[in-house]
Write a structure and sequence with these properties.
- This protein is of the alpha+beta class and about 240 residues long.
- The protein has a single domain, classed as outer membrane lipoprotein receptor (LolB), chain A, CATH 2.50.20.
- The chain contains four helices and twelve strands, in the order ααββββββααββββββ.
- Strands 7-8-9-10-11-1-2-3-4-5-6-12 form a twelve-stranded mixed β-sheet, covered by helices on one side.
- A hairpin with a 3-residue loop joins β2 and β3.
- α2 runs antiparallel to α4.
- The longest helix has 29 residues.
- It is globular, with a radius of gyration of 24 Å.
- The relative contact order is 0.17.
Length: about 240
């Protein structure tokens, strides 16, 4: 290639090819990697979320998986949580932060109870690991390790694991805790949360928890969290 123009043209082709390769490499990394700080921001900004929780443990009413589970629809102002057993709703709890009230309904006993929310509940409700808006911040608040990638419910995810008991936010002694959270590589939203806990003074209270079937950034209106009390239900005073 004695022709200077030919040499320049060949060099330009090489530069373009290398440049395209670098762009593809960088873009792939940027798009596919989970940035955990951004995940925390997304879940906190979510208009509303719907999810399921299943737990097992000593004397836990949801031991009978999959017949016992909990579903929650929540927004910053309203929430409705249903406790299921055998496919039927046994309990429902409604939180209305706008009206500052909590309503508890026991369908199996046909009774209900309502009370005002106190200031602590209004300002900083503590839902532990079942509060998805706070969950990621709890995971990132202490030491954690990256778990790499795996497919969860058909979704490619990246995960982290922590042994920080602050994630659980329990009001009783925690002897040991392990929590894992798996986030969609594509959407940046949590897909699965897993917890394993040994609690109590002797550590004999063992519990496992799973949160899944998430629907993020959905509208959860007040009408979805309003109770319709049947006339034969008795008020507990």
């Amino acid at each position: 290639m004695r022709n200077p123009i030919a040499r320049l043209a060949a060099a330009a082709v090489v530069i373009v090819v290398i440049g395209l390769g670098m762009i593809e490499f960088v873009s792939t990394g940027d798009k596919s990697g989970v940035v955990w700080a951004e995940v925390a921001q997304k879940v906190e900004a979510s208009r509303g979320v719907i999810f399921r929780v299943r737990t097992t443990g000593n004397k836990d009413p949801n031991d009978d998986w999959p017949n016992g589970y909990i579903t929650t629809r929540r927004s910053p102002l309203h929430s409705r949580t249903n406790w299921y057993r055998g496919g039927q709703v046994r309990r429902t709890v409604y939180f209305n932060r706008d009206a500052k009230t909590m309503l508890w309904v026991a369908h199996d006993a046909r009774v209900y109870y309502q009370r005002p929310l106190n200031e602590q509940e209004l300002q900083a409700p503590q839902d532990g690991w079942t509060n998805p808006q706070q969950l990621v911040d709890r995971f990132l608040s202490g030491k954690y390790r990256e778990l790499g990638r795996k497919t969860v419910e058909g979704v490619l995810c990246e995960g982290i694991e922590t042994t920080n008991p602050a994630v659980y936010a329990a009001t009783y002694p925690i002897k040991s805790f392990t929590g894992r959270i798996w986030v969609s590589v594509k959407t940046g939203y949590p897909v699965l949360v897993e917890t394993e806990t040994a609690a109590g003074d002797d550590g004999q209270r063992r519990e496992t928890g799973t949160a899944d079937q998430f629907q993020w950034d959905v509208e959860v209106g007040a009408h979805e969290c309003e109770a319709s009390i049947p006339p034969d239900y008795r008020f507990l005073d």
